[in-house]
Amino acid sequence: MQRTGVRTEFGRRPRPNYRGPDTGWSKNRLRRIWDLVTGFALRTQSAVLGIRGERRAARYLRLRGYRILALNFRAAGAEIDLVALDGETLVFVEVKTRRSEAAGSPLAAVDARKQARLRRAAEVYAARAGTQRPVRFDVVAIRARRLVPRVELVKGAF
Question: pTM of the full predicted structure?
Answer without folding.
Answer: 0.69
